[in-house]
Specification:
mainly alpha; about 65% helix; elongated
């Protein structure tokens, strides 16, 4: 029986679905940069409407094996992550194709009986990890003010809320591609140049 909804506006569940969709989509396909920003804007607007623009909708109980997910977050580089994605995602996606992405008591019983149940669950957890990382990366890269993992102020608070694994803001795994890293550095350089320009102009007054 569905739970009674008293929330007005976009619910946290709906926001989580939106974030998860965005994360999976950006990993699996190549998008033009402008299109990525447009989708990101929609996600952030939904967060504001819901009364939250952060990913604290995730908690340890969202994972089958939180220790597995935390290990991915704290010790895997991008190459290791990609290898793990290739290993566990096919089983999870096959399960989703047959049973859907939502996990109810009824299909959980079937999942637990599956021969590859552990791999399916790891696929689920890895997608959750990627959704959280994508949220943080998208937030950080939309307006670059700090070098990677040198966050402070609002950004630090936001990332701490999102980082269910350590609750820190400056230990985010660097899973960016070379192209994403170069674009990030370009935006940071532009921001620093702007700061220097306005500082110099202020001193001349």
């Amino acid at each position: 029986m569905p739970k009674k909804m008293t929330h007005i506006g976009v619910s946290k569940t709906e926001l989580k679905s939106c974030v998860n969709w965005f994360a999976s989509f950006t990993y699996s396909s190549v998008m033009a940069h402008a299109k990525q920003l447009s989708i990101l804007a929609i996600v952030l607007i939904l967060g504001i409407v819901a009364g939250t623009a952060k990913a604290d909708i995730y908690k340890q109980s969202d994972f089958f094996d939180f220790d597995y997910a935390k290990k991915i977050w704290t010790s895997f580089d991008r190459a290791s992550f990609d290898a793990e994605w290739k290993r566990v995602t096919p089983a999870w996606e096959a399960w989703v194709e047959t049973n859907g992405p939502k996990l109810y008591k009824e299909n959980l019983a079937d999942l637990n009986k599956a021969v590859d149940a552990i791999t399916i669950k790891q696929g689920h957890d890895l997608h959750q990890v990627w959704a959280i990382w994508s949220y943080i990366y998208s937030s950080a890269s939309a307006a670059v003010y700090n070098a990677w993992n040198e966050n402070d102020g609002f950004a630090c608070n936001n990332f701490q809320d999102a980082n269910v694994f350590t609750r820190k803001c400056n230990d985010i795994p660097d899973w960016r591609t070379d192209k994403e890293r170069a674009l990030y550095e370009k935006r940071l350089a532009h921001h620093l140049a702007q700061q220097e320009f306005f500082r110099a102009r202020k001193e001349k007054r």
